[in-house]
Every structure is written in C-alpha cells, then in structure tokens.
C-alpha cells in the first residue's frame, strides 16, 4: 500500500487506501469524507488531489491527516477502525525507521538525535493511545448517527408508508395525484433537485437469463418525509375548513327556512 504520504512533514492517508482497508468502494468513502467535512464546515477542495486510474483517466481522491481519518472511521465498525489505527502505527513506524541517521562521528550529536527520536516515539505512542480511547468513546454515538441517517435519510416507499400508517400502493397513488411522481412511480427531476427523493442505482439478476440488469430504486429522504407529512397536514386542515364551511352553510339554510 502507498496511501500514506508526507507533505512538509505532515502525514496524510488517501481515500483510496481507506477504501481498500475498509473494503468499501472508493466513491462511497469519498461521499463519507465530503459529508464529514460538510458537517465540520471544512472546505473539501483543500483536501482533493488528482490521480490517474487504471484507464489513465483523471480522478479525485482526498488526503486526510490522522485526526480527520480517525474522525471519519469512528462511524465504521470496530474491525475497520482497528485496521486504520494499525495502518497508521505501521506507517508512522516506517517513517521513523527511515529517518536520517545522526552523524555517528560526533557522539554528542548522535546521542542527542537518538534521545530525540525516543522522545518522539514515546509521544506518538501516547497520542495513539489517546486517539484509540477517543474513538472507542465516540463509536456508539457515531454508529447511532449512521443508523439514523441510513433509516431516516433514505427510506423506501414501503418504509415511509409504514411511518405514515398507510399502504405502499395508496402512498404512491397519492404522490402521483399530488404531482410528485410520474406514472412509473419515478419522481420528477425538480423534486430530486430539491432533495425530497434520491435515485439509487441497483443491480438485479434475471432469473431466466442469469444476466445482471441495472435499474434505479427510488428512496424518500428525511427532508422528503418531512415535506410529505406537512403536506398531508395542510390538506387535512383544508378538508376540516371545508367541512366547517359546509356545516355553517347548512345551519344558515335551516335558519332561513324557519
């Protein structure tokens, strides 16, 4: 692996190596990094670098320092976090070993250099222990956040229908009637742009031919669920007002007849 880099003595780990260590697709790790930096209000472009892929095409990767790397993987499972921490320790040790050796012809310089190196190594081990402890403390909260994000920010029609205590067919019909969905139950682009829906690429195997078929699955985001809920409330209030108007009009008619 060559994912750890040193620029002006600052070590960084590339998003490609993080993806490899965590057995994730690079695009998914990049997305996680962008979401993390957005939450931290850090400009993602300052971490972006161009590399050439296997087909000699220009692609973007991110290079994170140790703190941001540990923050990123705090939401991953224990096994993946452990791989990242071990990799940092391994590569930091390699850098320390590869450091320029002191001038052994001068015993004073040599002694001072070795003492400095031992001091730095002890400090690095202490920092690593603190980071591992911090990750262990943050892990339950980070995992809870990831679980909520996966369940709330991208739900299927079935899941949303259950939230609203209705059926999938009725929900889709209502969304079509309100102009959110086309007849194919795919959302109109403007509502995707507004962040109410998300189209996720999926692959299924044709049982007859055995071929893989690409398709898009429609998910309703957390923003979309909130929007739909408020829309239903608005319509319900309108129906209540119309019912009150009807009752008032009927009462006035009865008074007029008497």
Furnish the topology, listing elements before pairings:
Blueprint: E1 4-7, E2 10-14, H1 15-22, H2 26-39, E3 48-52, E4 58-64, H3 66-73, H4 78-97, H5 107-152, H6 157-163, H7 168-177, H8 189-193, E5 197-205, E6 212-220, H9 222-257
Antiparallel strand pairs: 1-2, 2-4, 3-4, 5-6
Helix pairs in contact: 1-2, 3-4, 4-5, 6-7
How are the strands ordered across the major sheet? 1-2-4-3
**What's the shape?**
elongated
According to DSSP, the number of beta strands is 6
Mean pLDDT figure = 75
Structural class: alpha+beta
Biggest sheet layout? 4 strands, antiparallel
Helix-strand string: EEHHEEHHHHHHEEH
* Radius of gyration over C-alpha positions, nearest whole angstrom: 29 Å
Q: Separation of termini?
A: 93 Å
Low-confidence stretches: 143-152
Structural domain count: 2
- Helices, by number, come to 9
- Kindly estimate the percentage of residues that lie in beta strands according to DSSP: 15-25%
Helix content: 55-70%
Which labels suit this protein?
single chain, 258 residues
Structure description:
60% of the residues lie in helices and 15% in strands. The protein is built from nine helices and six strands, in the order E-E-H-H-E-E-H-H-H-H-H-H-E-E-H. The chain has helices spanning 15-22, 26-39, 66-73, 78-97, 107-152, 157-163, 168-177, 189-193, 222-257; strands spanning 4-7, 10-14, 48-52, 58-64, 197-205, 212-220. The strands form two sheets. It has a four-stranded antiparallel β-sheet with strand order 1-2-4-3. Strands 5-6 form a two-stranded antiparallel ribbon. Strand 1 and strand 2 (10-14) form a beta hairpin. Helix 3 (66-73) runs antiparallel to helix 4 (78-97) and helix 4 runs antiparallel to helix 5. It starts with a strand and ends with a helix.
